[in-house]
Amino acid sequence: MALSGMRGLSVFISDIRNCPNKEQERLRVDKELGNIRTRFKNEKGLSPYEKKKYVWKMLYIYMLGYDVDFGHMEAVSLISAPKYPEKQVGYIVTSCLLNENHDFLRLAINTVRNDIIGRNETFQCLALTMVGNIGGREFAESLAPDVQKLIISSSCRPLVRKKAALCLLRLYRKNPDVVNVDGWADRMAQLLDERDLGVLTSSMSLLVALVSNNHEAYWSCLPKCVKILERLARNQDVPQEYTYYGIPSPWLQVKTMRALQYFPTVEDPNTRRSLFEVLQRILMGTDVVKNVNKNNASHAVLFEALALVMHLDAEKEMMSQCIALLGKFIAVREPNIRYLGLENMTRMLMVTDVHDIIKRHQAQIITSLKDPDISIRRRALDLLYGMCDVSNAKDIVEELLQYLSTADFAMREELSLKAAILAEKFAPDLSWYVDVILQLIDKAGDFVSDDIWFRVVQFVTNNEDLQPYAAAKAREYLDKPAIHETMVKVSAYLLGEYSHLLARRPGCSPKEIFSIIHEKLPTVSMSTVAILLSTYAKILMHTQPADPELQNQIWAIFNKYESCIEVEIQQRAVEYFALSRKGAALMDILAEMPKFPERQSSLIKKAEDVEVDTAEQSAIKLRAQQQQTSTALVVADQSSANGTSPVNQLGLVKVPSMSSSVDHNSTDRGMAQPNGTLTKVDPQPPSPSPSPDLLGDLLGPLAIEGPPVAGESEQNVVSGLEGVAAVDAAAIVPVTVQTNAVEPIGNIAERFHALCLKDSGVLYEDPYVQIGIKAEWRGHHGRLVLFLGNKNTSPLVSVQALILPPSHLKMELSLVPETIPPRAQVQCPLEVMNLRPSRDVAVLDFSYKFNTDMVNVKLRLPAVLNKFLQPITVSAEEFFPQWRSLSGPPLKLQEVVRGVRPMPLLEMANLFNSCHLMVCPGLDPNPNNLVASTTFYSESTRAMLCLTRIETDPADRTQLRMTVASGDPTLTFELKEFIKEQLVSIPIAPRPPAPVPPTPPVAQPVPPAAPSNDPGAMLAGLL
């Protein structure tokens, strides 16, 4: 900003810079704001110079981070000044202080329009800059036609036309429905003939935005884009100021190739030949040099050219040339270049017939797996995973297993999963597959998910020839002095089923098998104890007639666990003890598990989602996935179509999927056995009181007697939005006025806030459907299971569930079936990864059709900030050095919070603990204060320590002072605001009662009895 002659402004800036601390700076700013406010009250006595000076001061104060809530009118009024200095101040300050929805902007629209259509180029540039910075719907409606005229005007200088193109681009991105670009194809083609590279670059940015929405209208621009690339590749008529380290306008080259990727293909043979000549020139002319800036520019052009080559499905010769060039990149020392080479070679895997060429670089890629930089190791792992096939699977899997012992803990889970998937997909024989998985469990047991050993059990059960080999390998691993608990589980299961096949081998008698398994019992968790009890029962079954000594040993164990506090363990011990007394009949009762039905591997399903570059591709892929068949776990009602079957025929059916397992700690009596057989579920008798339980309405008597699906009446379309405002607790908002609109049951906002503090419960319920959630969080990863339950005797059709994630969360939802059968429930796993701190919430867009009612709701998902917190206790020796090292904003923020819900200090401490903030007693000498600590996990911050201090006033519980500190400014602010939201009471407007629709009478629901356990425990039985 030009400060010449403004002595008062210069003095004020000097005073601010000389302030010794933040408090002094605040006092000086308050003093100056008071002076400015006083002078603005007597605006008539202000000269243009003084008004300009005070507005500059306001902007400087705003840039320092202080609120400036007055003087906006004075800033806007300067826009209409006749002289450039005042007008410049007005435009700059207005752009900074006001947003697109500010009322004062309407006062300036006419002045801005006059400047745009005027003849003063300086004023035009100022006006276009402000309109482009602010955007706004009203600006787009009023000024877009005038901006469009400037772009194609031959009387305007290139500087004005360049700014006009960028201004229109901003308006179009913000308001594509307002800016009219119909018939602009010919005008864009004319703009691409422009010789000025500044105008051409801005026009190309505009073209990229236009063709991304509708490429069909702009086919005439395609040959013009190719000619631009030819001009730049040959360095023809390129001014020196647009040449960057010898590269002609790399920004324009990248934008042009990006625009070409939105067209499906290049049909004209001459244009296609010219384009490939240009791409060939780019590939031949790019190499690694010492100058970093030149490397960055040339590689940006090169990688965009590679993307275009893949898009156009070029000849194999050119593909080979691209891979050879990338092979050079992954062999250089510079880590950034090596990373880009690995990443782009991974993208090349999507092209057919290039895998054999990429395999030539396998040795170099394996070397990158040992690079010191973890990001390069991750890219190398992705590339090895993608290039693996039958021919090189053994080599790659062996390398991964060897690397597993030294790999970073952050990579071991992903490494284990990918090694298991490759072993399953490309196993030359099943014995090799068993060897690989057992090695995997042995080397990285903590990072091997249950899905992996479930899959081994399935393969061994379904292949009789493999059973003796698998049992023998399991026996070998049990000889090791220390093995992981997962290895104990899989070995115990395999030996329980198939140890009798090894009975004649030395060291494999039933007594010896029992003895070596029983040695592991004291060191395992309760979930593994359940498997071991089953193994003991199986061993006893295989030794009929029974060995008295072995039988007494096993019976003693059963007697010991009959009084176990864990219900599942207690029940197994009692039942196995009773069954083992039946003698020879035990052979029939505990027979070998039958073969599993053929099913899609849950491991392979996890890896099917391929990362894509653009949001458009992601949306297309997501919509395509919604139309595929789901493999989710379904809880089906086995009653007949007319609904007359008794309720006790309701059971659990596993659709082929290994993605979910039985929770042995569940108290639900409807347990799904490992082999997928059906178990009867005894419903509780009806009770006059309604049940709040998630599964109560699904497993109890019918809630609604559903009419036939094929209805002839007109549809009722219901749409909803929940989570935008705290006042709107309804979560369903009718699009049109309906007499029988579907209303939710219960308060949606209260359900959401409850799930923010716990991990299981009901998210949404209406007369037709119930949506429950059970979540598990570890570090910056989370796994939610959505339970979609149909409460009626008619199916729910046209079911769709879309996740709308905020930018800081990466979320992947499994496939959701289009139809939910009557009185059935679907489980849909949702994987969550936290990228950075933020309080924004993800939204579940859920819709379904019941008879003629089309219902659509948008529900906030409880993947909130505190889910990625891990409470940690810190001592005084750890706390105070950390607290002192985080001095002042932005790492340490303090705020006086008013409007706090009055609560005792103990209740506040419990609230903090429920938010995963560990209250540390004794650190603050004042008994009215609280000190809490926690660790926040995200991909950007990793594990970040957060410290909080709450100072309360016993005389006034409605206010407190809060101080939050962490090593990341964004995290500090977001955590402070989150805690404030939990403490401040926000009233929620009550929802009016739903109107009673004039529908024909239906069978009244018989509500089930309220169970004694909570929804989370009931849900656990179905996981």
3D architecture notes:
This protein is of the alpha+beta class and 1023 residues long. It has 39 helices and 18 strands. A hairpin with a 3-residue loop joins strand 16 and strand 17 (942-953). Helix 1 (7-17) packs parallel to helix 3 (48-63). The longest helix has 21 residues, at 292-312.
Question: Main traits of this protein?
Answer:
1023 residues, alpha+beta, 6-stranded antiparallel beta sheet, 39 helices, 18 strands, 12% strand, disordered C terminus
Query: Structural class of the secondary elements?
Result: alpha+beta
The gross shape turns out to be: globular
**Which ranges are low-confidence, i.e. pLDDT below 50, for 5 or more consecutive residues?**
609-740, 986-1023
Please count the beta strands (DSSP E, at least 2 residues each): 18
Helix tally equals 39
From the alpha-carbon coordinates, what is the Rg to the nearest angstrom?
Answer: 34 Å
Specify the oligomeric state: single chain
Let me know the average pLDDT: 79
* Helix proportion: 40-55%
Summarize the structure.
It contains 39 helices and 18 strands. With 1023 residues, it is of the alpha+beta class. Strand 1 and strand 2 form a beta hairpin.
Compile the SSE list and pairings.
Layout: H1 7-17, H2 22-41, H3 48-63, H4 72-77, H5 84-97, H6 105-117, H7 121-134, H8 137-152, H9 158-174, H10 185-191, H11 197-213, H12 222-233, E1 243-244, E2 247-248, H13 250-260, H14 269-285, H15 292-312, H16 316-329, H17 335-348, H18 355-359, H19 362-368, H20 374-387, H21 393-404, H22 409-425, H23 430-443, H24 450-462, H25 467-478, H26 485-498, H27 510-518, H28 526-542, H29 548-561, H30 567-580, H31 586-589, H32 602-606, H33 615-626, E3 633-635, H34 696-699, E4 716-718, H35 748-757, E5 760-765, E6 769-778, E7 781-790, E8 797-804, E9 809-813, E10 825-834, E11 843-850, E12 853-860, E13 869-871, H36 876-885, E14 892-898, H37 905-914, E15 918-919, E16 929-938, E17 942-953, E18 956-966, H38 969-983, H39 1015-1020
Parallel strand pairs: 4-12
Antiparallel strand pairs: 1-2, 3-10, 5-6, 6-7, 7-10, 8-11, 9-10, 11-12, 13-16, 14-18, 15-16, 16-17, 17-18
